[in-house]
User: Fold this.
Amino acid sequence: MFITKFLEDIGRYFILMGEVFRRPDNLRMYWIAFARDLYTLGVKSLGLVCIISIFVGAVVTLQTALNLENPIIPKYYIAIATRESIILEFSPTMISLILAGKVVYNNASTLGTMRVSVQIDALEVMGVKSASYLIMPKIAACLIFNPVLIVLSMFLGIVGGYFAGSITGMISSTEFIDGLQMDYRPFYIYYALVKTVVFAFIITTVSAYYGYYVKGGAVEVGENSTKAVVSSSLVLIVANYIITQLLLS
Amino acid sequence: MIRVENVQKSFGDNHVLKGIDATFLEGRTNLIIGKSGSGKTVFLKCLLGLHDTDEGIIDYDGRILSEMSKEQRRKLRLELGMVFQGSALFDSLTVEENVSFPLKMFTNKSKAEIAERTNFCLNRVRIENANHLFPAEISGGMQKRVAIARAIVMNPKYLFCDEPNSGLDPKTAMVIDELIKEITEEFNITTVINTHDMNSVLQVGDNIIFLADGKKVWEGTKEEVITTDNEEMVNFVFSSELFKKIRRAARKEQNLP
Assistant:
């Protein structure tokens, strides 16, 4: 029963993707929808990403400093550990998970409400490719803006760590900057951005799937939105493992 | 004209439509009536192509719906206007944006032309000074009229209305019925209305089909509703005392028993 349902979901997901990636009816209207989604899903997440990144960066530095309190270990290792934690895992994965909560709920509930209030049927009857018009701009917005958010998150996480280390005196500014520059691998940024783009695709398409196919009323919209958050988070975690295995091992 | 022949539709073991034949003429207000659960909405969705039929023919002026490709169906839909039961206006768009949406999506008209056509349609349904309001800021009756304006903005050949006056007070419901009838005649549209409102039946029903248990049980005009002896139809239409009195008076006038 569970396997049948799972396979049915997978099949319907790919059918939906087939509908989403169809030639737009009118590029100008898609562009307007894209700009609106860029603002709603991307720009409106800036504040949340900034605050979380600064404070988590600070906490990572403090915790690393406390764990490396040993005269033999040079202090700049604190900065190296902070940098690697933030670039490899915190920014691309944790921020994507946080965005999953916000963006997924927004997408699934918006599309679900449109479905139950027959606004999607209205689009279909007009002749609009509803899946494409409603979902494609959201995917494009997240694919373009999430990497910007993640790069910003990396920067602010490290800045947060820098200030936390300096203010508490656990690591000096010079040692922190030396540590940041030591043994730096640009490939890690590439790895983080690949993860971000894949996660952005998962977040938007899984949420769209759950929202677009809602049946029922307000209760079902809520239930499907919750399912969308859980499912996209699980898929994201599995994808994180697969990408890490493929790119870093 | 829309011609329907032996349309059947099932959902699993549930046979909802059991072979319906009907003809909906242009310039006339065609009504589909029946009790809740009689198959009206499924029939309307089949006509719109939102449900595929299991058997039968739906013919739009020589174009058979079931033989059309997805793209052909999409093109046909540009000739359809639809007024949904709950209006189905886009919440995030203003009244003006709702009405102009199909023009922006499917035509290359200039901004001025779009504004002119939008205002014409809004004036036609007697909506004034509400262009920049959102659907949540206007009354149910106004929402219905905006939905009608949106449905006619592309000059449709076929207009479908699903219970257009549900949830409205009797006076507003009458205004909506009259408006649909006027528009149908003025633009020579083939209009199909799904309803169980008996005021609508007696007021605007040029051609009425009565569905019961997924089958067409009766067909006629609003005048013939009064004189029919079809028991199911009489029981459905004249279920209230008021309508029974109207029927008795009308039959007396026509010297019918």
